[in-house]
From TrEMBL, chains A, B:
<keyword id="KW-0560">Oxidoreductase</keyword>
<feature type="domain" description="Enoyl reductase (ER)">
    <location>
        <begin position="24"/>
        <end position="336"/>
    </location>
</feature>
<protein>
    <recommendedName>
        <fullName>Enoyl reductase (ER) domain-containing protein</fullName>
    </recommendedName>
</protein>
<dbReference type="GO" id="GO:0016628">
    <property type="term" value="F:oxidoreductase activity, acting on the CH-CH group of donors, NAD or NADP as acceptor"/>
</dbReference>
<dbReference type="InterPro" id="IPR041694">
    <property type="entry name" value="ADH_N_2"/>
</dbReference>
<dbReference type="Pfam" id="PF16884">
    <property type="entry name" value="ADH_N_2"/>
</dbReference>
<dbReference type="InterPro" id="IPR011032">
    <property type="entry name" value="GroES-like_sf"/>
</dbReference>
<dbReference type="InterPro" id="IPR013149">
    <property type="entry name" value="ADH-like_C"/>
</dbReference>
<dbReference type="InterPro" id="IPR020843">
    <property type="entry name" value="ER"/>
</dbReference>
<dbReference type="Pfam" id="PF00107">
    <property type="entry name" value="ADH_zinc_N"/>
</dbReference>
<dbReference type="InterPro" id="IPR045010">
    <property type="entry name" value="MDR_fam"/>
</dbReference>
<dbReference type="InterPro" id="IPR036291">
    <property type="entry name" value="NAD(P)-bd_dom_sf"/>
</dbReference>
């Protein structure tokens, strides 16, 4: 049964060309395409909200990485929430809200196995943020990869972003001694301490990261959640206490660099201080999904976990919204209302 | 009861001054000092063999680290094996062979709690090498920190040294797919493949480490045991397979550097390849001592683990022997016959 209001054609955003360095809107093409017919076992979803995330920059390059690159001339993809408007699957019926991976388009034909219904007592955008990939990333990185323990002092870089703001709050809610964040504007730094409850925060553009971190963490740090790489990573290694742990989640400082950036010059401290570092990608950690949801959903329902969202309206503005994430324009999760 | 042949005075090696950069024999003083009287609960040991190790370079500097610095004007210390010549402890009697931590002197008054008797069916030097700290370091780093698994391809830097040569052999004996080592001379490279059973080896002075490693490991590496740091670490990160693991044991390339060396420029691969790195110091791992001994002692008794030793005779030559270790003159474990 198909919703009679489904049009014949709809918009999608395609990769027009691969960027060298910083991408621009010229790397994207907004195209009108036939709305797909859902095949056997598929559902047709009218997207309401979609996610734009820093990791998508990597997929714009041709290099093989942990997610397949976007293809030139094809629509991009990524997390989205929408309404089922037609179903060839016994598991879904029209009108249901589903989370799936075919964003960057107004209508998507999705394999039923790739869609999940989302609870309707929570805003659908939450499933792209605090209860979606960014929330899961924060939880897995802090709890599993950095093996957070009560009493730890935690440093988070890119702390005003979708992931970082949740890492800091989860640490505080679980008994961190002190939580420190870095961000790239005075406004974000203010938000970190006043709204997200960080104990200290600094603007990494104001002075060398190492200096500011040592001042903010006079007793050193036990956990570093790395979203930035580069000088932040070197500063964190230098400030770590013995047996400190690093969760390596991203390196936004490197994504648009056209040549290799200097690496941390203090790697020998891994030995002297017995540090550990674990790189991770959230998709590998499906076995923690239930634990994550059971831990975080109640905090969201009770209003104890603040999740900022920055909304941009209209699929046509999705490329600009994505570029904004790379520049750091957003606070919390950037969502495009399709 | 004291052995009547104990002299009134004996030699010890003291720290004369702290080096800046490479140490020289001028940083050491050979002194004649009264042989100590063992106090209550102590034993007097006539040292027969002592260990000189790269980590001692760190202790020559004043900087606080994981082991206390040597003190100027005082004798150095370190692993040694000797014969009990006088005992004020019920646990030891004269004539026993013991392992203890007061090397760099001919006679040592050792607390009974700090001495261990060693099996007399194995050469006493083995307890400074394959069954001592270097062996334990190799075992702990490979098995526990790098979580070695059958079928792994393993790369070891500084592979002809006391620790490295054991890492490679333990990996092979436990089912490594391929073991690759780097060393600093053609002679050592030859030893690695011909004597220690490495599958491939290269001289890091011949060409960039990254190039040589990629050639030696066409299918990438799963484990890197790092004794060297610097360009070796960057090359290993670049060659790692997904979910690769690094045990950070040392960074001999950095010990005598007077300024910070460039760091690995490819740290972002920790995320994309989900790498992990664990720094460690063997002394933290006493809980693995029994497991280590049960695993390694039979291999030594059966002659299945080749442990090279380079012997230098005479305590007066200990400083030069130590400098030789830093330069890489030794193959396998460097032992000073006191």
């Amino acid at each position: 049964m198909t919703d009679s209001s489904v049009p014949a054609t709809a918009l999608e955003v395609r990769l027009a060309s691969r960027p060298a360095g910083w991408p621009t809107t010229d790397n994207f093409e907004i195209a009108e395409a036939p709305v797909p017919e859902p095949g056997p076992g598929q559902i047709l979803v009218r997207n309401k909200a979609m996610s734009v995330d820093p990791y998508m920059r990597g997929r714009m390059s041709a290099a093989k990485s942990y997610v397949a690159p976007f293809e030139i001339g094809k629509p991009l993809d990524g997390g989205a929430v929408g309404e089922v408007v037609s179903s060839n699957s016994d598991d879904f019926s029209t009108g249901q809200q589903v989370l799936h991976a075919l964003g960057w388009r107004e209508y998507a034909a999705v394999d039923a196995s790739q869609a999940t219904t989302v609870a309707d007592d929570l805003p659908s955008s939450a499933f792209l943020g605090v209860l979606g990939m960014p929330g899961m990333t924060a939880y897995v990185g802090l709890m599993d990869k950095a093996r957070f323990q009560q009493g730890d002092t935690v440093f988070v870089s890119g702390a005003a972003g979708a992931v970082g703001s949740l890492v800091g709050q989860l640490a505080k809610l679980n008994g961190a001694e002190r939580v420190i964040g870095s961000a790239g504007s005075a406004e974000k730094v203010r938000l970190l301490t006043e709204r997200f409850g960080f104990d200290a925060a600094f603007n990494y553009k104001d002075a060398p990261v190492g200096e500011q971190l040592r001042e903010a963490a006079p007793n050193g740090i036990d956990v570093y959640f790395d979203n930035v790489g580069g000088d932040h990573l070197e500063a964190a290694i230098g400030t770590m206490n013995d047996f400190g742990r690093i969760a390596a989640c991203g390196a936004i400082s490197q994504y648009n660099a056209t040549e290799a950036q200097p690496g941390p010059r203090n790697m020998f401290q891994f030995v002297t201080k017995r540090l550990s570092m674990q790189g991770f990608i959230v998709n590998d950690n499906g076995h923690l999904k239930r634990e994550f949801f059971e831990h975080v959903a109640p905090l969201v329902r009770e209003g104890r976990l603040i999740h900022e969202e920055t909304f941009v309206d209209g699929l046509r503005n999705a490329p600009e919204a994505f570029l904004g994430v790379l520049r750091g324009d957003n606070t919390g999760k950037m969502i495009v209302n399709v």
